[in-house]
Amino acid sequence: MYLYSIKKTTRPIIMKTLLKTLAVLGSLVICTTAMAQDTFKVKVDQPAHGKVTVSPEVPEDGIVKAGTVLNVKVEVTDEGWVFDSGYYLSFSGGMFYPTYKESMVPEFQVKVESDILSLGASIMEESRLEGYRTIQDIVYAQPGVKALKYDMFIPDGARNLPCIVIIHGGGWSSNTEDIMRGLARELIKGGKYAVASIDYRWIAQKDGDEKPNRMNQLIEDCFGAILHIQEHAAEYGINPKKIAVTGDSAGGHLSACTATLIERVGDGGWGIKPGIYEYLPTYMPKGMSVKKARKSLMAIKAAAPSYGVFDRANLVRFASDLDEAGQMAITPDDNIPSVKDRAIPQYLVLGTLDRTVKHEPIRKYVEHLHAAGQKAELVIIEGAEHAFFDWKPDQRTKATFAQYGVPYAADMLRFFDEVFYK
After folding, report:
1. Which of 266, 349, 341 is CA-nearest to residue 303?
2. CA 96 to chain centre
3. What is the residue-wise DSSP string for 2-22?
4. Are 246 and 226 in contact (CB under 8 A)?
5. CA distance 33 to 391
6. Cα–Cα distance between 365 and 342 in angstroms, integer?
């Protein structure tokens, strides 16, 4: 608006000067970026009870040549402590979107392609690993660039146990199953359940897939993972007919979907025919029909979707190009079965200080569950914020998990016990 108030005779001169200035600034930015890419700064954090060795050694000033591959080795130095994970936080995702990655093995590599804010390791009490074994990175499908996998946590002597399936959060576009290992370790306590923590495709092109992933495909991944787990039930010591699902945030939505949308499992396609929106699981056991897959998934007997999104108004952005039927198809609140048709009791938690999800739709979801005759508990946790079931190496996340995740994982177990052990 301001430029249009200048006289016509002076406007071209000002515009020409402005364009020249922008060109110079652009050149400076390009030159600065090119110079900045020659070296980056790396910060190595030494953990308590352990030692991180980096080769080649990072100098005291932390300046490392771009493209350098750092070989990282983590050693535990104190008795009674064990390796949890190695990690690094960098700006490879952009200045405002730092990338966080973990390694579940004590020797790993990091390529220096941006500033690394923190490179280190998490060391934890050995007691956290007692009473169970872990099988990591079980691949169940690879529909795109990323191999889809899950981790199994199996109590010692497991035989015919119910299985709790955890689905991680992260805005449907970040994190992996590793972020739920703290919750898995709590839910395995007592040896009453085996636990599976699953991964799935990220929405849009966040995985690097050429074709954007849609919400229905993420849900199909979750169904596929559960079918794979059931297929290998004997190996894991679980009863394939007794499955519970849980998850937090985006995983809260996806776990609620696996609990409420089973009737939509089919091979009719996704919007190919008017009004038909059916889920074809990403993984199907050899020789299993879709009808049998749907029947097998009926083994999901309970759900604990934590601080998730369950209503159409807040999910429509993932299906804005679909008609109402398509938008309803990804919404747990629109698919609650009557208890006369299928009982699916649910346990939900929500922190009073959670600003990530809207509180009222969650309360409405619980009301609608009750209206359908379903058993549902909503536990409001005073002082809790979002994502307190997450586990990351930093002390703040660990402290939050200890304060809220541990006691409410125990309460979740109490709820599951009422379903599977009474």
Report:
1. 349
2. 20
3. -GGGS-TTTHHHHHHHHHHHH
4. no
5. 35
6. 17
What's the rounded mean pLDDT across residues 27-32? 41
Handedness of CA 143, 173, 151, 236 (dihedral sign): negative
In this predicted model, what pLDDT tens digit does every residue of 342-396 receive, in sequence order?
Answer: 999 999 999 999 999 999 999 999 999 999 999 999 999 999 999 999 999 888 9
Question: What's the CA gap between 253 and 257, in Å, rounded?
Answer: 6
Structure-block tokens of residue 217: 């495909």
Question: What is the pTM assigned to this prediction?
Answer: 0.89
Q: Under DSSP, is residue 206 helix (H, G, I), strand (E, B) or coil?
A: coil
Sign of the alpha-carbon dihedral angle for 123, 124, 127, 133: negative
Q: Is the peptide bond before 56 cis (omega within 30 degrees of 0)?
A: yes
Which residues face 248 on adjacent strands? 306
First to last CA, the chain: 71
DSSP state of 332: G
Give the whole-angstrom CA distance, residue 385 versus residue 350. 8
- Specify the pairing of strand 194-198 against strand 238-248: unpaired
- Average the pLDDT over 175-181 and give the result: 96
How would you write 207-265 as a 3-class SS string?
A: CCCCCCECHHHHHHHHHHHHHHHHHCHHHHCEEEEEEEEEEECHHHHHHHHHHHCHHHE
- DSSP label at 192? S
> Cα–Cα distance between 163 and 142 in angstroms, integer?
23
- For 336, 350, 421, the CA distances from 249, given in Å and listed in that order, are 19, 10, 27
Structure tokens at 280: 């074809």
CA–CA separation, 335 vs 374, rounded Å? 12
Token pair in block for residue 198: 């699953």
pLDDT 10s digits, 201-229: 999 999 999 999 999 999 999 999 999 99
Asked if 168 and 177 count as a contact pair (C-beta separation under 8 A), the reply is: yes
Of all helices (H) and strands (E), which one includes residue 415? Answer: helix 406-420
Confidence of residue 99 (pLDDT cuts 50, 70, 90): confident
